[in-house]
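Ticket #4471: structure output looks truncated?

Reporter: J.K.
Steps to reproduce: submitted the chain below (260 residues) through the standard prediction queue, then opened the result file.
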Amino acid sequence: MPDIIAHPLSWPLRAFRALAARAGSACPACAGAARGGRLCPPCVADVLKPPYGGAPRCLRCALRLAPALMAGGAGADAPLCADCLLHPPAFARTIAAFDYEPPFDILIQQFKGQHRHAMAGALADLLYQAWLERGDTMEPPLHAVIPIPASRASLRRRGFNPAGELAATLAARAALPVWRAALHRQREDGRRQASLGRRQREAAVQGLYRCTRPVPGLHVALVDDVMTTGSTVDAAARALLQAGAARVTVLVAARTPAQR
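Returned output as attached by the reporter:
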């Protein structure tokens, strides 16, 4: 179980969340019976079940690996993908709840495309459970949760920052403080990251973020909804390390798989 720093909620908020968690609802994945807007237990098990015969993830970027292609060798304790072995990112580790592919990519599409803010709870639960299962060696303990800032164009289009909502819900689940304004976007170019190729993404995010608060010697978690190439979280992690952070761990709901 990951080490956490207590951040107690007020009793009215705890009571409200406890009541909401018991309310009946439809599972966002299968429309079956669930509670509190979350997934039903069978869908949770299916989402978190490793695909491709239980192939491991790269320890650094959470890319799902074929055992024969692991840079650390099949059965290695800390497998790495070729990219992370040749070009180590600024962040130390990534934990992803599931792969961004059918059938469960619909969860992200509902959250972002359909503006279903309540999906933050379902996604945060999945990510927190993945964290509990895979983050038991996370040292030193995490001090805070920091969301990736959204662009102004994204905020106008959606009306909210998906990473911010996910980070706030996850932080409450893990009893950690969330620092929403710890990172600042230093420019806006109007282009959507989803429309850019890998090299374009890397160029677009260089020097994009600035840390706005002291983080000396702290271990912080960067939170985003989807990780594709890792360029965005890498740029954000570099800004945090430049501000004095000791270690950056990335927590994402979904990881885009490699082309197979």
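Triage note (M.O.): checked the attachment and the full token line is present. The CA atoms of residues 152 and 259 lie 31 Å apart.
Status: closed, working as intended.
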